[in-house]
Predict the structure.
Amino acid sequence: MSWTKKILRINLTDRTSRSEDLNMEWADLYLGQRGLATKYFTEEVDPKVEPLSPDNKLFMVTGPLTGTMATTGGRYSCVTKSPLTNALACSNSGGFFGNEMKCAGWDMIVLEGKASSPVYIHISNEKCDILPADDIWGKSVWEADEWLHKAHQDPQLRIAAIGVPGENGNLYSAIVNDLHRAAGRSGVGTVMGSKNVKAVTLRGSIGVGNIKDPKRFFEATNKAKQLIEETELVVGLRVMGTNVMMNHMNEVGALPARNWQDSIFLEAPKLSSEAMAVPRKSDGKPNLTRNAGCFACTISCGRISTIDPEHFSIKNREDIHKYFKGNSGGNEYEAAWALGCDTGVDDLDAVTYANFVCNEQAIDPISAGATIAAAMELFELGILTKEDTGGIELNFGNAAAMVECIELISKHEGFGKELAQSSLRFCTKYGRPDLAIVVKGQEFPAYDARGVKGMGLGYATSNRGACHVRGYTNASETAGVPFKTDPLATEGKAELLIAFQDTTSVFDSAGICTFSSFAQGLEEVAEQLDAACEGDWTAEKLAELGERVWNMERDYNNRIGFTAADDTLPPRLLNEPVKAGPAKGHVCELDQMLPEYYEKRGWNTDGTIKEETKQRLNLS
Amino acid sequence: MSEVTVKLFASLAKVAPENIGGEIKTFPLDPGDTIPDIVNKAKLGHRNLHLIVLNGIYIDKDKRASTVLSDGDVLAFWPPVIGG
């Protein structure tokens, strides 16, 4: 139980939909959300499929704990084949869309084929309508959201939508739900746009009432919530938000800056959580308005912010005030880093504005910021000129230039179309693919792998390309959670990373947030699942399930054509030593970690999975 | 005179424009002073100092008492925080 045991399949080509029973044997092996949808995807979709063709599928999927009273049980994921990486994509979002899907009676929604003209999907419990989207195609997420709420006369409608970039093939388009929560990475919004789907709207009144043992579930979820409240680390997230890492990573000398030319950004404090709390001169208000929580979350790490009303970026953006009275989601650490440190911009309001535009038009701020940063380096090298940029002086630190680039990306106009192809393709066009800081085509997040070496191994082996949330060894390496390891050492990082990767796979498959893993472990998750769901759920079973999910993803990527040669890092990380700080002189010695990682994973030296490993994990 | 610089971050720092990169204080350093000695001088003994970073290097809890400080050292303190 806890699963609704129902899948909604939507064939966009012939504009039909049907209900299908959930495969409960697979649910026992892959749980839900990331694991279960990936199982379906890998069974149904040819590894060689072109990501933007009608034959690709997009799974929007919940976990068994989504929509329940389990703390942080508001997560959902988008699983597809990525146009950015050509690998499997699984992008996770919070907000209130996932629980609404569950309340409407669906574990997952599958978008198949391609509509002949723009549509949106309107789901109200068992009823599914595929409706014309002519009035909202070409509009932003925020405009579409407003129009859809009015059109259906339902303020409670939950909406996930793409923006203009997603309609036009920008390779790092996100799917934004609830106005500013995003399935952000790997271009899942690009896939949605390729199917001519502007939005999915949900209204569920059935509820999640099929808990196996409500009394035991109540006790188990209460215990987990209490654990979170007793864990000061997680409560710190509520107070400071994720951007508290800005000063921390800078102090430990692993904050990449200016397209990873530097590992310390002296101006980083201006973009930090601490800076977000300081009242500004113009209106006496701080950047940070309040914190915000997703459905059922007792952490509430989200940030809601405003831009200085006097700031240049919003002089001509009255519509921002119309929709939000100046508020939107952010700044989170990753977005503030990519749009700020990576581009050398130290203007908090410019970064906040750029982040808002990413919310407004469903753009991955990490990939967008990183692509602009790569373009800035090309510009400073004289390879990219003002003729190429349409007149933009694209130097590092130029806030107005960064803002102009984001606006052009959001409108998919002019130089923005060039940047929309992502950093690898952009840098390759100008003959310098080495300046694209990517793995498998996906841009890096905010931890310098030369100063936090486990993260380097994590970037190289991540199944969706460079990513921090697939295996957040930084918690151990620079913050001592759950135990301290030396960030500059390579020894032991393979084992550490595998533990993080497999555990994260479980949280992503259960329907809960990985941030809760700073307080609760697999024992607590197993207790909640066992009380909510049929099947016997133990920490041991979950640990194996996490390993199974990771290997399933790997095996599919291998069948796509990825090999050990793709488990690498950009030359800058491997060959250019850090210039200053605690990591001075260091590169990321991937070659010292990768063979051990393969061995501990039970893989061959060519990166394929040994048959005995597949058999042990029931993957054969 | 020898000195050590202390930087307080997150909720350890007062919200102020000058504190965005850490609330900075300096303390005289006596010969043999360890991290707990400076914590006492800074009157931080009652705070939960989850993260202590000395010149950019994380100092394990069990090594704080034996870490002798030098002139010009920078000690950064955080309460329990994590991000991602």
Notes: The CA atoms of residues 3 and 29 of chain B lie 5 Å apart. Chain B has a mean pLDDT of 95. The radius of gyration of chain B is 12 Å. Strands of chain B lie at 3-8, 23-28, 51-54, 57-58, 74-78.
